[in-house]
Queue: 2 jobs
Job 1
Amino acid sequence: MKNPEGKAAQNIVLKIKDVTLRFGGLVAVGDLSMNVPEGSITGLIGPNGAGKTTVFNVITGFYKPTKGSVDFMGKPLTGLPPHKVCEAGLSRTFQNIRLFHNETVLENVMIGSYVRQKGRWWQNLLPFVFPAALREEREIRAGSLELLAHLGLAEQADAVSSSLPYGAQRRLEIARALATRPKFLLLDEPAAGMNPQESVELLNFIRKLRDDFDLTILLIEHDMKVVMGVCEYIWVLDRGLLIAEGSPETIRTNPQVIEAYLGKDAPVGDGPVGASPPVQ
Amino acid sequence: MKTKIRNGILNLLSLGVLVYFLWWAPGNLDGYKLRIINLIAINAILGLSLNLIYGMTGMFSLGHAGFMAIGAYVSALLILTPEQKVTMWILDPIAPWLLNFHTPFIVSLVLAGLAASFLGWLIALPVLRLGGDYLGIATLGFAEIIRILIVNLTPLTNGSLGLKGIPAHTDLWMSYGCLLVVLLFMIRLMKSNFGNVLRAVRDDEIAAKTMGIDTFQTRVLAFVIGCFGGGVGGALMGNLITTIDPKMFMITQTYSLLMVVVVGGLGSITGSVIGSILVTTLLEWLRFVENPVTIGSFHIPGIPGMRMVIFSVLLIVIIIFRREGIMGTREFSWDWFFPTGAPGEKSETKGVGQ
Amino acid sequence: MSLNMFVQHFINALGLGALYGLIAIGYTMVYGILRLINFAHGDIFMLGAYFVFFATIQFKLPWGIGVAIAIAGATLCGLLVDRIAYRPLRSAPRISALISAIGVSFFLENLSVVVFTGMPRAVVQPPWLMHPILIKSPSFGEIRLIPLGLMVPVISFLIVGGLLWIVHRTKPGLAMRSISYDIETTRLMGVSVDRIIALTFALGSALAALAGIMWALRYPRVEPFMGIFPGFKAFIAAVFGGIGSIPGAMIGGLALGFVEIMSIAFFPRLSGYKDAFAFVLLIVILLVKPTGLMGERLEEKI
């Protein structure tokens, strides 16, 4: 599925159209239009301060764009509050992991399941009157344990989430996002803080996620090995503007992208961006 | 499974001990001690309801005295007889529609809670949208407004003279019965997934929103439930002391509840119960500091205000040196007494009563 | 209402508002830097009033010296409060510091009951401050002004001017503003953050004490709980003006002073609800413009 023609034939699941976001006089994102095809793993890259996380925040409802629209599976997301965006089937992780740090690993995942829980809160107070609600809670617990097992966190289910090692926290954050049963997953720098060995493992992990959970994945990443290794299509932002898009091969050799990352004097052509991560 | 049965038996046993104690106490303890024991239950109810707002959901509310006042007045106005009302209202005649309003105690208790909840909801809508620090000052202000209204709306409340001769419906059975209901409610609530959601809202609002949680509605809900507890607690208090007036519901009242919650541990149900026992007895015990003492021929005059000085120093010391209180966020479990319990099987029981 | 009555109320409101403003500045400075509602601030105000009472009336010191002693004493108390109750909690969750602040406030009030007794005491006003000045005019009749009524706003405005100069034109002022943006980076720049915070508390406490002194002269009495309501109201004034902004605090204080005095002047039946106005105002502000008049928006980084 590497030729662009094949891509065009796929359904566009997320459609960003002419999105502009201004903070006062500062244009954080300018006239951004971008499409993400269903079932793809798409990358959103760019140097620091390019506005990548801002785009995530616009998609997930934390920022309301000054103009433009975001559609998900044909329905508008623009203006929806974050929790409605989640209900619609989008979930995300954060650049600086945001777990519920006082809760256990299992509880973190159960909180993620709450959005799909049908039983009302008061029904659980009267288990004999509402056995269905009690059953549902048990199912959520079992399902969450299963999800943890799937991501290799079953052992730590009862550990407090802040006590996990860094890599496991990242995985837990993904597990928690999956618990909301998303169709679309946004990963904000999943490889941050990982060593090269772990990054390689992450490549397979992300692919497996997509296949196992039938997801579309949009990810922000600085580690070019990860980006080039896993993404099927890449969008490049610089200072809030889209400067390039295309397959990893075309992005790798795109002079504008190289310039954005390395500055004007960088040797163009033979110096592939993917060879080394950009200076942070 | 074995531990479950064991814990069930132990719960029943401790409930039995409590019932026996409640049956034994009235004949064997003097009125002063009984009153303190009653107050422990009431303060535990109030502490639990404040803990729900503050420890579990992370909203810094300082309005509990106001919600107690609403509860106490609503309940008292509903159970006082028309004759009592006619003679008591001196400043202004009582509003005619209120004169013949009369309900049984239990109904008044529920209505007290509902009234507090309703007003809590009204204040929550504007204030909880912001969250954070303003909530404290706004709820505190709200409690003061309630107090000022009580002083000024004489046809309804008899103003600063307060209400006297409220039937003493609050006995040990009533206060501990209510406490038991509140405890069961809190345990079920915090053990359910909704309890996890409340803690999620407290710990990281942004992450909670991302998980599809409507954090605003969740907060409002927790706040309103907490206000209900405040109203019921106030009503029980009024029916225990039998007189209420606006001065009873000053900010000091909220501070002592804050102390109950902080001492016990923010976010711990067990903690609030322990906190209530400690703070209630401590506050009573400290009265000695303010009373004149004569030892032999040596006379020590009472020092007014000293009680609250010690109290506030304790609050500061605890918050600086042991922020998590006695329990932190932990809960009581019978497993404490059975160190070799089956590994992997997490205990599902929490203490009943004390 | 006749014009001369209105002018009378206007000057009254100006005085009360200026006092709220002076107290509000302490709240707004501490909040701007530490994001902490210093609940004890109103009690520092009370201590200022008590100190001047004891200095001038018990110990018969001249007013000038009494005022200096009161300000110095209250400032010292403010510094102690920060050192003992707040500094150990700098890295703790903010709610802990808030509880500590409540504890301190409660402590100072009750300690005052123990030390000064709970009885309100009358303050003897120096006659030269009370001697009325009559302004007669054929167009609007007679206006009686007492020097005190004019002195309070004038002193307050001068002090605010001086404070703005400190904050915007001196090095410690620069450090203060820098801390309010980013405390950690400021620390890395080699600024002694704790000292600057202490300076902030000192300035705020001195202003609160000054307000307390003038308050004691206006409503000639002192009592241990006199700081509670002015404290809350001043905080609301700070929120109204936009928390973190010094001119905002003064404007908020004046606005609150006018709301209180004028609503009672026009609707005398509302006087029982006087203390509730500020809180109603707070809720209205939070609904309409949570950042206040001159405040900036504080966004949490996602």
Job 2
Amino acid sequence: MRLLRYTLYRLLQAIPVLIGVTLITFVLANLAPGDPVRFMLHGQEVDEELIRTVERRYGLDRPLHERYLVYMGGVLQGDFGHSIHRNRPVLDLMLARIGPTLLLVVSAYAFALATAIPLGILAAKRRNQPEDHVSRIVALVGVSTPSFWIGIMLILLFAVTLGWLPSSGLVYPWWPPETYGHSGYGEHALETVRHLLLPMIALGTLQMATLMRVERTQMINSLQGEYVKLARAYGVPERTILRKHAFRAAQLPIITIVGLNLSTALGGAVLIEYVFNINGMGRLFLEAIQQLDYQLIMGITIVIGTMFVVGVIITDISYAYIDPRVTYGEEE
Amino acid sequence: MTDPLLRVENLTTQFFTEAGTVRAVDSISFEVHEGEIVGLVGESGAGKSVASMSLLRLVESPGEIVAGEITYKGRTIFGLEETADGSLSERPEMLSEEEMRREIRGNEIAVIFQDPMESLNPVFTVGGQLREFIELNRGLSKRVAREEAIRMLREVGIPDPEGRYEEYPHQFSGGMRQRVLIAMALACEPSLIIADEPTTALDVTVEGQILDLVDDLQEKYGTSFIWVTHDLGVVAEICDRVNVMYLGEIVEQAPVDDLFYETAHPYTEALLESMPRPDLTVEEIQSIRGVMPSAIAPPSGCRFHPRCRYAREACKRVHPDPRRVATSADGETHRAACLRHDVFESGYEASAPLEHATALSDREVERPPGGEGGE
Amino acid sequence: MAVGESQLETDTGSRTEVDYGWRHTVSTVMGDTTARWGFYIVAFVFLVSAYTMVDSNLARLTFGAFEDFTFAEWLPIFDHPERIPPPGEGESNVPPAFHAEGSMANPLGTDPAGRDYFTRIVYGAQVSVSVGVVSTLIGFVGGTIIGAVSGFYGGKVDDALMRAVETVYAIPPLILIIVFTVFVSGGSPDIIYAVFGVGIAFIPVFARIIRSEVLSVREMDYIEAARASGVKNRDIIRRHVIPNSFAPVLVYATLQIGVTILIVAGLSFLGYGAQPPTPDWGQMLSVSHGYMHSNVWLSIWPGVAILLTIMGFNLFGDGLQDALDPRIDD
């Protein structure tokens, strides 16, 4: 009940941010010098009369604020406009591409959390010992390396040199195995994982590095907490202290960072999809940019902004689930 | 006299830091008998908390118990012996880490910490934490432990214990949290509870309530207490016997009445004078001159001599250990570590007073007659 | 008398007051091994880019006196970064480490156009460093103004600014900057748009940090005192609030240079940053992407250069943080 109320509250709070996202996108898209139609035509010589017709057709002859309101009215009804270049509704184009991006981002986070949490705890437990130093170096290299270059290096090593893993594309688990000519669900699952492995690591390394250091600091703090001392004084086994008493409180900042870093991860997905030829939102965005398809660009930016906002809300709610202080709103 | 519940002999705990070795607890000895409340008193930095954590062998790195013996109910919590090659090693009968955890911590010796705000884990319910410790230390099933937890919450005066069982620490006031911690300690049915400044963080009215509660419960359960505090007012209210610590050492050891009426150590005297009292104005209250020196390089001789108004030449040379200076009416020993007492035969009377001491005694205000009772 | 007590009750030394002076900062940073290495790397990269910057602008700097002259004539290890050699000359494009036929004249091989790869890597430092520094500066200055105003005045101004910050935050920086670059440049992106794009995109992050610093500084006694004695708000911000909020932001800015270089590398890789023939690491990776299978080394060296440079800034930033903020542990 309290979580439900909190969820509604957070959703309401997100509305102004979402409006802001549409506004920024709209303003940016109209920053282009000259009129939009000519811009989209890449400077090709076209009949003036034709331009006027197109402008009228898409409402581009009206003042900016009016166009924004019309556009927003459409967005609220799920109508993101029409891609001029592809002559299809923007929404359809995006829906076809959103799955791979979600698969990629979610699995990158799964990889990051599955490695960062145990390694961070290990580093905290063995503070200033070799394990800690190794984790420090891994984290440093992780935050200093461009994700797309990690992708290229992984391809060179595991796909080109060793030939173990495929270097491009994804296998979508939601499509039937026959689409890929797989014999059954076993092979289908295996191929899904094989295709996902390299892009997932490339995108997840930065997150892993960041989260690992935070996990370490938080565990060190938590292990020095008064409640850990109390648990020790009451004979709680060290393993239980690490896994239960110290662990849970230490995860709170991790959750926040997962949410905020979603922005970096979604940006990184553009690069990783490009390097690994994955047909996701990121590639769609790059194609739209190339074609100056500004209805599509706006749609994608708004959807990605929304994905971030929704992601932050989800992490906030799980934070509230772990930390009772949030929802009661009476923190001292 | 029967065997004491806890006997501490020459306990020495040191911290090995980059700045040098900190002698946090330096060869202290005391006893706790069944059913009594023993005070451990001193300024912050005196080594009280380290001493009490040493009793559970929970001194955190870089600290380490380096010497002494701790015996609890005839079992050796800590004890060293000399091996054939002359080095020290742990005695075979000393309890292992696992035995300490299973058999001593919580179910034999429980603790109550100073800060009730930080001592409870913010992400678990109060009841859950209480239940966990009861389950662990009394070997009860989840269901029974839960009932026991609710019973204890009621016992320490928490209204609506069933309802509050499910609540989180932040929903409790400071006083209520301290009650929870007391319930926690008592619920594990230990024979000894170490209370480390349990009322310091609370305001005065709540402090009074908590002290009354402890008094009642102590009578009911017969549990012994080590009460760590800097507040002699609290000591006067609940303790039976008192150990006064200064810079890692026990400087005076006496039954509570003797400590207040037959004060035998200048440091205790100074502590008593620094207590706020209704019959003195702020100007008249004497604070103790100077700050406590570092325990890395304590002053030579008597460690209190740089701040002592009775200090003489001899105090710089001779290091006094606590010796019997009197015996009270009911046969209890009164010990003090001060050269002014005849038992030391250190030539105190003959040596010259130190300069600062003369200055300090000049500063002394007129003290009301009838001693310096804290009641 | 006693207030609080920790397990280690005894005073473990005379560390009563923390020295915040510059000398202290420098000695702390240089006393830490990792921070010192960070400083060496940063200093090296700065020196290299300063050298190349002077070299490529020599003609302009000397008012045409050295029209066709480059340092390359003195220091034969460098070729001219943009000179495409005539056919035949740049044929040995395999680096000696990869193939016996490689020649030490091109220690890292040559790029597909036959240009010496080592020279181009060296000249690439210039773009990365100046882009990193300039766009961080834009974010820093913009963020300081917005954050200081917002934190100092509070209330509705603060609310509005923070909502705006949150909004910009919601769009991934890479996407925001690409959109900005493409639309503002009218469809022909270049590094200069990327620099401004990155700078503007990071104004909110700086504003947020400055704001929280200002909020904590604002409550301090000397600000109260200045207010009470009638000093103008603008002067209080300039003379008291900003200097006192400076240290954490400086640390953040150092780390941010690394992040900026990372993002600009991504932009150039996708073709929205530096444009050929400018030697830039991200742009070089973009070109080499097409030769990934045949000429492996082309993809390796620029990435290593980016990695080392960013690592330098990160190490140095961490060291600076330890030196400026004794509270942070590790």
